[in-house]
Amino acid sequence: MVEGNVQDKDGNPVPFARISTQESKKNALCDADGNFSISLAVGTHFIEISALGFYTKSIQIDVKANQKNHFAFILDENPSELGEIEIHANTRDIARHVMHEASKKSDLYKSNYENISLESYQKISLHTLGPDTTHFEEKIDRDTLPYISIQRNLLESYSEIKKQKNKYREQIIAAKDYSRNPPSDDLSISISMEFGEHNIAPQQWMYANTYLLNSNTGYFEFDFNQNLLDLPGLAEKPYLSPLAATASINYQFDLIGTYYVDSKKYYRIKVTPIWKSEALFEGEVVIENETWALIKVDLNATPRSLKMYAALNVKQEMKQFGNDIYFPERTAISYQIKEGKTTYFGSVLVARTEISFPAEFEENTFSNETQYYTPEAFNRDSAYWNVLRTDSVNTLQQSYISECDSLQAYYTSDEYYHEQDSTFNDVRFMDFILYGVGFKNRARREMYYFYPLAMQVNPVGIGGYRHKFGAAFSKEFQNNYLLETNGEVDYGFRNRDIRGKVGVGLTYVPRKFVRTFIRVGDFYDMINTYASLGSIFSRSNYVRTQSFSVAQRMELVNGLFAELSLEFSDQKPINNLQQDLWSQQLFGDVNTPLTFERYIKSEIRLDLLYRIKQKYIIKKGKKIIQGTQYPEFHLTYRKGVPGLFNSEVNFDFVEVGVEHDAELGRWGTAQWSMIAGSFLNKKNLRLLEYRYFRGSDVLFFSDPLRSFQLLGPTLSTPNAYLRGNYFHHLDGLFLNKIPLINRLKLTEAFGAAFLSIPDQQFYHAEMYVGLERVVRIRRELFRFGIYGASSATSLNRARFEFKFGINFYNTYSKKWSY
Length: 818
Hints:
mainly beta
């Protein structure tokens, strides 16, 4: 490994100087401080050092074994290439004119990226500073030790990228996530509460390290010729480019100076954001005079706009292809994260080669599959990476790679598997109390899980205290088939009754999410599975159900999910049970169990969900859904079948709905949904089969897209209805521009909702406004809010209440729950 530094004759660093070897294609690029590292074999090498405005220097170096190879190079300025800097008095007027001309040309240069193919190498690194404990002795004061860099994470990938306007496809040829941690065995048990509106789409909760600035699109996001740079991992709203059409009202531009290269004139422009809390940039750009093309970028994101990072810098230097094509061969990103007293330093390097545009593609090149990992992508060895890398890793990273490779070899050994299984299967006291008792067999990919005492104790059960035992089992097969079973049984001491249920599911044809799930049981079931928190435990929301159900789910075509289910149940009231006193005191009148005659129901249910042009990734043989930018549609049909297994019900119900998350650029995010439904046939429709809506929660602001804030405790209908919900995050559109207040990082939100049931002459409308703030707690983000809600209802007087809410952030999809 060779490391070094490049300076000018005055001792100033030469950023982005290129180091290349004459006998191979290996090269390296200096960072902002003129530092570089390049992997060279032991022996003699002829290298070239070149930089804009300097003479190219060729020099011979000797790389020796078992010692530090560090070189310092000094470049001389080239007077014929770098002209004298011109000083101007009216710097702002000139700068505004230059940026205005560059903005007008940006659409032309942006269109050059719309039909391109290239190969891309990405390296993502994360390190911290800590004391050197290599030779640490107990008597030495730790605080007096010198600080060194400690590598925390390192990811590399190499891919082939094709882009045509809004179409994109990336084939990952090699991918490596170096880690000291053992690899995930993907053995897990899903224990969840059946609460919320029915959703047949597979829920893919995937962990993403928020400290690693990763991308799914080869960092095309950092295209400063675009008006807006959509970077959801960085800020709540898109960043406004200094070349945007509205840049003049958001930025102040100053001319630092001008210089010449090969008789071409270049402007150095200082970029200063007017609004320090908005998603803007500050730093320097270079514009070429004749073509008004963006040549160089050295910009920092405004610190207050960053939701996870403390600082972020982007450097790009464009290469000219032809007369009107400028494209960044390299993008260098550096950032910092503060966590207590620790500062994490992150960097991303994107080096692009084999750049071709305009590129020609075959007819079936593009589809909704945006990324594909080749089967051998994760199995590339060190020798392969040494050849593949367009930029070398430094000494610290090389040492980290060697350590991780050794650890990963151990992690795949039989000795490690046996050790980990023994450790996991070693039952501790706290497992019984809080975490549950589990048993794994990695070799057979099986896992058992038994509920902890905390899940067994149920003081708020039907009739009072109930004790519950539960267990689950999962097994993943080599072909990615997944077998899941779970069951529970509980006993009520007051009524001396035993209830329980068990379910078995098999997921096969994994890329189509084909799953068959069977459940049977005798249990106390919720009537409204999405009731308000204030009434979810109310005895009026429960019945006794003895049922058998089978459900078949699959993805028919990309984005179109279907689930067909058959449920047979014997529905019984619970008004004959002894109830506990506390629930009557807590819930009052709404605690009275429903009174109805016992009946038998056989119901067929069909659910369809369609996502237009759903994007996805294929990774390790599995399909990972990325979502869609278009509205999502769903249809539900329920049929109560008379006579089937002595069924007494006879009804037909249809519901259609549409929802959408709309990105409105600098105006924030708008989310809306619209649902309409009706019972087409009500010959024998029972109260339990009505359409139920979520009621209001006391003080708590519930999901505004699927609930109401001031509707009342509960509402159901056997009639036609129309429901609409709208919520808008303005993301500081106004507050970010108010001095002092913008330091609080508060953002605005507003919304509205309505429910109409004409046959019952019931109409409800509500609206709300609120203030929100994003809070980071270690590696997780939360959005806390306070909202004022007002409503008007045909049956009650207008109301006004304050509500408090908390919103959760999905680190993988980079979206909030609402």
